[in-house]
Structures are given as C-alpha cells and as structure tokens.
Design a protein that fits this description.
single chain, 376 residues, 0% strand
C-alpha cells in the first residue's frame, strides 16, 4: 500500500513533466519546419527536422511554467522525483548504448582533460574566493560544484565541512545560473569548435558544464541538432568520470576543514559515490557481456535463433525509455528552478562562479583544440 500511495503522490508531477516533454518535442518539430522554410531549406529533409531542440524547448517550458504561473503543490513531489530519480534512470539506461571498448576509448581521451579542468576550477575558485572576501567554505562549495559534479557535489560536501544553509544555497545558485546558460549556449559552441569530431564535442560538454542534468541536456540538444549520438555518449562517460572523482576529492577537500570540526564519517564517504554511477557501469558491463555472448555461435545455438533479435529489442526499448525519461527529467529541472531565489546571491559569489565556469571551459577547449591539431 505504501508503494501505491507513493505513486499516487508522484503521479501528477510525473504527468506534468512528461506532458512538457511531449509538448516540447511537438513545438520543436513545428519550429524547425518554420525555420527551415524561412531559410529556404527543405523542411522534410532529416537534417532540418531538428533545427530546434525538443529538449531545450521542454526545459524552457518548465522554466516559464514555474516562474510565471508557479508549481502547484500537488505536482511538487512528482516533479522532484523526475528531476532526480528519473534523470538517474535515464542515464543508467544510456549505459546499454555503450560497450566497454567504446567507453574505454572515450575515457582514455576524457580522463586527462577532466583532470586538468578539475584542477583549474579548484585553483581559480580558491584564489578568487580569498581575493573578493567570500568565506572559505562557500568557495569550496562553488569549487566542488563547478569542478566535480554540480549540485550533487555541493550537497555531498556541505555536511562534511559543516557549511551553513546560506552557503549551500549560494553555491547551488551559482551552479544553477551558469549551468543553465551553458546548457543552451555550449552545444552551439561545441559544434563551432569541434563540429568535425563528436567525440571532442562530447568531451567538451562533459568537462565544461557543471551539473549532470545540465550536461545531459546540452549533449541531447547537440545530438538532436547535429545527429551525433557519439557526442551524447562521450559527454555522459566524461561527466561520470567527474562524478566518480567525488570519492577522492570530497574527502580531500573536507580534510582542509577538519582542524577543529568533526571527523569524516562513513556516511560522508558513501555520499561521495553516487549509486547511479555504479549502476551506469553495470549497464555497460551487461551490454558488453550480452554482445560477447551472442557473438559466439555456440551460445546462439544454445539460446535459440530468436536470441539476437530479442537482445536487440531490449536494447532498442532501453534507448527509447532513456530518451523519454531524460526529456521528462529535464523538463522537471526547469520546473524546479525558481529564478527569483537567485536575486539574493550578490555579486561576489556570482563573480567567483563565473570565473570558475569560464576557467573549465577555456581549459577544456584549449586541451581539446591542441589534441585536434595534433591529429590532423
């Protein structure tokens, strides 16, 4: 009965987020046709059917709905569920699009870029926090959110360093402001810089945008606009590399504030390893194992002639479910963003957050541009 009551509580918000995802897709298709016609292009051509991203429209619809009309109380639980659990389910299902070989090739290029971006954000934020006079804890929260994992890193680090509620709120506000701007602007910047390489475009998005939801939204916009699923895969793997670094960096940052405070607990360390990251890795392993098993003639003979088609149907279903779960989750992100709360930030945290955001973008673009030049 508890599960039934929970679903009854979540259903209105889930339905609202899903409806915005559907409407966003429909509006984007109509806008794409209009833009193509005005530009003298063939509206029926595949390359012109996604000139306007359905994901971007869904997020904007959510923002407008929340900030002009307000979010009904009956929808809050379900919208929150979609913005958190729905997003994680969609990301985990993306793992079934990747085999270990593909993920390994992406990781080999993404890991040093991500490491450089993390180092740059930590150094820049620490220096500027002291320069403008914001608290060391607020600076650490902004650094963690920018360099590692957005809101998740802030929420994990906050209790470990005993930050105040205001400090946590300010850090989340910075991540929200600059992450939303990057969500809409960086897909086009990524294509301008690395349009010939979906791998590099995806790694740029995965290293230069803060929160997991924002990276996912930007890479989905890129995929829709440029028909580049490889960019979405690269961005997802790159972002999850950053997420996994929480297990090391959150305790490392927290030790700087342990001089007189409580010791790190097992709960602090556990919070530094998001469960959905591990589930994503399990999905990659299952995809790899399934492909390897069905590649063997003896296994196909034992499983039966329908096994390959059944496996492909499962993968296709996971891909469809992932697409719609992510679309609804990102609409939910828009519905949970109250722009009015950002007015209280003040210029100092915003200045530090902007500098940190720009630093990771410049470092990522610089390293990837140098790699692209070497490969030519």
């Amino acid at each position: 009965m508890t599960g039934v009551r929970a679903w009854g509580k979540w259903l209105p918000g889930i339905a609202l987020a899903a409806a915005l995802a559907v409407v966003g897709k429909w509006l984007a298709r109509g806008l794409s046709t209009g833009v193509a016609s005005l530009s003298g292009l063939d509206p029926s051509a595949p390359d012109t059917q996604n000139l306007v991203s359905g994901i971007a429209v869904a997020v904007l619809l959510g923002l407008v709905f929340r900030n002009l009309g307000g979010l009904p109380a009956v929808c809050r639980s379900g919208v929150g569920f979609m913005a958190t659990t729905g997003l994680r389910v969609g990301i985990v299902l993306l793992g079934f699009k990747l085999a270990l070989g593909t993920a390994g090739r992406i990781s080999g290029t993404a890991l040093p870029v991500a490491a450089a971006c993390i180092a740059a954000a930590l150094l820049v934020t620490t220096f500027l926090s002291r320069l403008v006079g914001i608290s060391a804890k607020l600076g650490a929260l902004i650094a963690a959110g920018t360099s590692i994992c957005g809101v998740t890193a802030i929420v994990a680090l906050g209790p470990a360093i005993d930050s105040s509620e205001d400090e946590t709120s300010y850090a989340v506000g910075c991540i929200t402001v600059f992450g939303l701007l990057a969500l809409f602007a960086y897909p086009w910047l990524a294509h301008a810089l690395f349009g010939s390489s979906p791998l590099f475009a995806g790694i740029f998005l995965g290293t230069s945008i803060h929160d997991t939801s924002q990276v996912t939204g930007a890479s989905l916009i890129y995929q829709e606009a440029y028909r580049a699923p490889a960019a979405l895969q690269a961005a997802t793997v790159t972002k999850l590399i950053r997420n996994m670094s929480m297990a090391v960096l959150i305790p490392f940052i927290a030790t700087r504030f342990r001089t007189g405070g409580r010791a790190l607990t097992w709960r602090d360390l556990k919070a530094a390893v998001p469960g959905f990251v591990l589930a994503f890795l399990v999905a990659i392993a299952l995809r790899t194992a399934g492909d390897l098993v069905l590649a063997a003639e003896s296994a196909r003979a034992w499983l039966g002639p329908d096994a390959p088609s059944a496996w492909q149907s499962f993968l296709d279903g996971a891909a469809i479910l992932s697409t719609w779960a992510l679309a609804a989750a990102l609409a939910g992100i828009g519905l949970t963003t109250d722009l009015r709360k950002l007015r209280a930030l003040g210029w100092k945290p915003l200045a530090v957050g902007l500098a940190a955001a720009l630093s990771v973008g410049f470092v990522s673009a610089g390293i990837l541009s140098a790699l692209a030049t070497r490969l030519r």
